[in-house]
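BUG: 3D viewer hangs when loading the predicted structure for this chain

Environment: internal workstation, default settings.
Expected: structure renders.
Actual: progress bar stalls at 90%.

Input used:
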Amino acid sequence: MAYLLGIDISTTSAKALLIDETGKVTASVTSEYPMAMPQPLWVEQNPEDWWHAACASIQQALTQAGVKGRDVKAIGLTGQMHGLVMLGQHGQLLRPAILWNDQRTAKECEEITQRIGFKRLLSITGNQALTGFTMPKILWVKKNEPEVYSQTAHILLPKDYVRYRLTDKLATDKADGSGMLLFDLNQRNWSEELIHELEIPIEWLPQAYEGPEITGEISRNSASETGLEPGTPVVAGGGDQVAQAVGVGVVLPGLMAITLGTSGVVFASSLRPIIEPFGRVHAFCHAVPATWHLMGVMLSAAGSLRWFRDTLSPAKSYDELDLMADGIQPGSEGLFFLPYLSGERTPHPDPLARAAFVGLTMRHTQAHLVRAVLEGVGFGLRDCLELIRNAGVGVLPQARFSGGGASSRVWRMIIANILGIELETVNTTEGAAFGAALLAGVGFGLWNSVSESCQATIRIIETTSPNPIDALIYTELYPQYQALYPALKPTFDAAGNTANR
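Structure tokens produced before the viewer hung:
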């Protein structure tokens, strides 16, 4: 039996997932690590924590499955996108990694836009300059930590630092690379124009590969730390959202995925690069060769419910919160929740956006608050969906639905009603790590294509269809939700500037 290993370097933990050649999960192990927030809006991690957690997860997964390192035939990598890892000439870490949810680079985003021009930047990369992306972080280090910048020899994304430790090779995949704001979307490679204009040494950037391509092999040193066999191939893989899409089978044009994790993502595949005219949704390469995707991202989806539980209802379980919300009518009796707890990306690229309950009255109970949070996240996902539809992607009236929040029957129904589409759940629940393992199988030759790997391992197990009456209620409420951000933006800006003094 051949085994495939998917490694997911997420924001909170390193997951090692082993599957066999039928797609059956034989082991899944997660090892957590901390985040640091040394100043307001800053979020950093020590890349060595990723490596040690990955080693621990891999070793435990092999033990859990009862297999040897030599039984693992290929390895795929995935993980958090957009982070900045800076290495010196000898591969040494120069500073902690700056993460995707770090918001310190607003001025650098303005500088990039001014130097390149908004339309030109959009036409090359498919995206506007956002604080989450990698390139603004590079400029921030150049301006604020010149001693670090002067020592830099290599720049990597988070999962690619783990790849470097596994293989001694500097490489990335085209999907994750296209999220750095240095990629030519049409050419599926680094943009020489942007690299020249922004004065980035091209030798700092790793070679970019298609998702199933082999980028290196397990080294003898990493084999001793992980239990894997030296010489085992490691494929390029993809960033977490594109690997998640592979993991639920969204690899062909017209298919769509919705992920309800800490963040919320609406993802649609395409056979050509499609760019939203104002850059309000991301246009990236897919992990599938010769394929692209559009992606809307809201920063606090299931994270909003977790905040609510931890802050306002710590004694209750998620199941209890579900039951409370289920007893409230659609619309929460006029109560709205804006889910901007971490700022926002889509449709409002605004690090100063703030969460809010709007419409509170004496009639509203804790159950109304819970329902409003679930609905607010649903409306945020609809923002993403509407932009993707209007950009010209031929999406179908259903989507593959996954992530931690997808386990809630109540939330699935609310989101199906707000979006007006069917939500399909599949037999695989391991998300991005499963997608990375499938990409490894294609690279190894177990399957001839990414599509074939999905057909062999993924099937729909449940469909949630919208209720026409409730869907109509939400269609009528949606414009009221849309009007709240513009009305409150002056307050958000003032509050954000006060908090950051």
